[in-house]
Write a structure and sequence with these properties.
- The protein is α+β, with helices and mostly antiparallel strands and 245 residues long.
- Helix content is 22%, strand content 25%.
- α1 packs across α2.
- The longest helix has 10 residues.
- The protein is elongated.
- The two termini are 29 Å apart.
- The model has no long low-confidence stretch (mean pLDDT 93).
- The structure holds uracil.
């Protein structure tokens, strides 16, 4: 791999932003091959360098993994002539990395919540392959109240236009008598286009809110506001790798 700036290296490794790196370098807290780095923009060779950040050895990742809180109104594509995409929410530096980042699976334009972006095509392919599809939980609200009969039908599988959905899990929130409609969580073990929207339509209902809160072992980070993102931790990457076996 080509040499790169130390601050870029630490940012791509998911350890620190450029500003954090500058601060840590000034405090003598970044060691490069055992010697305190003098400048955040010094060149390092990712294949051979040994960096320690605040006492922790840094392992450079071959791939990049980003957990984003997708906001409403943004499309889950890499490029779109008209609409803002999830990639547009990332800084230039991350939009330029090669292989390029892409969203792992899709959320509708008005669905918010957990979106994984990566450039690990193999992992993404496996996470989304029908044979090993990871579970995904969505918080939802619908316009009309769901009956027990609706819940039983949704859980057993409904026809969404030539396809009967696989069994899933639906949990309803306690309803206050004033409330119109219903809200709750639905966990799918598959991922068809517009699946939840179409499932609710099959029960003559309409989605008014949809937010993905889990994706396999990943959980939507409550500290991330809509539009914010962070790198996955080592533990999260490991859990994803393991979830696909
Ligand atoms: N099901 C939907 O209908 N929309 C989504 O964005 C995700 C699942």
């Amino acid at each position: 791999m080509k040499s790169m700036r130390l601050d870029k290296y630490l940012s791509l490794a998911g350890i620190a932003s450029r500003t954090e790196t500058s601060k840590a370098v000034r405090g003598g807290e970044v060691l490069v091959d055992g010697v305190p780095a003098r400048k955040a923009d010094m060149q390092v060779d990712p294949d051979t360098v040994q960096v320690t950040f605040k006492g922790q050895p840094v392992t450079y990742r071959q791939f990049t993994y980003i957990l984003m809180h997708k906001p409403d109104g943004v499309v889950s594509a890499t490029e779109d002539g008209r609409e803002q995409t999830v990639l547009d929410l990332l800084p230039e530096e991350l939009r330029r990395i090669r292989p390029a980042l892409f969203p792992c699976g899709r959320l509708d334009k008005h669905t918010t919540g957990l979106m994984l972006l990566t450039n690990n095509g193999d992992l993404s392919h496996r996470l989304l392959s029908p044979a090993r599809h990871v579970d995904k939980t969505y918080a939802f609200a619908v316009k009309f109240s769901l009956s027990q009969e609706d819940v039983t039908a949704l859980e057993a599988g409904v026809d969404i236009g030539g396809y009967v959905t696989a069994p899933c899990k639906v949990e309803l929130d306690e309803k206050d008598p004033e409330q119109r409609g219903s809200s709750g969580r639905i966990t799918l073990h598959e991922g068809k286009y517009h699946q939840i929207k179409l499932m609710m339509e099959a029960r003559h209902n309409r989605i008014t809110k949809l937010q993905r809160i889990t994706f396999g072992p990943l959980v939507l980070d409550p500290s991330l506001a809509a539009g914010e993102w962070r790198m996955l931790s080592e533990g999260e990457v490991r859990a994803l790798e393991e979830s696909r076996r």
